[in-house]
Design goal:
By secondary structure, this protein is an alpha+beta fold. The protein contains 2 helices and 7 strands; from the N terminus they run H-H-E-E-E-E-E-E-E.
């Protein structure tokens, strides 16, 4: 009889702990769970390079910049067509909520993009410490 009462108490205590933990998670701000995220919304041709619409979210006080790189796929010849853009850290709004930005990627010398080209765009945060994180990639036909 005593062991079953002890067992019920332990099960009751465990149930209370699980419910309390679930309540803490449910009460946590949703913004904390989505900080430092990136998504490529749209890739378009923007002569002479590309334009990329991105959605981003970042932590407050983080010292990083947003970088976008593009490469034309299925290229012939020895020269690669590439383009890049950066949004500096002072231009990013970092407050845990989602924001959108238009990035105009400038092509490298001798690079060319045209309607119908297939490109792979990569975006990521690049920190002062030299590390990149929160990467997203998208393959699009211009």
């Amino acid at each position: 009889m005593k062991s079953s009462r002890l067992r019920r108490r332990l099960l009751g205590t465990a149930a209370v702990a699980v419910l309390a933990g679930a309540g803490v998670l449910a009460g946590a701000p949703a913004a904390v769970a989505k900080a430092n995220l990136l998504a490529i919304d749209k890739v378009t041709l923007h002569e002479p390079g590309l334009r990329v619409k991105v959605t981003y979210s970042c932590d407050t006080g983080i010292n990083h910049q947003l970088v976008a790189n593009a490469i034309k796929l299925n290229q012939t010849g020895s020269d690669e067509s590439i383009a890049a853009a950066t949004i500096k850290k002072n231009k990013l709004v970092c407050d845990y909520t989602n924001h959108t930005a238009q990035m105009t990627l400038r092509p490298a010398v001798a690079s060319h993009f045209a309607k119908g080209d297939t490109v792979k765009v990569t975006i990521f945060y690049f920190g002062d410490d030299g590390f990149s994180y929160a990467r997203d990639e998208k393959v699009s036909v211009l």
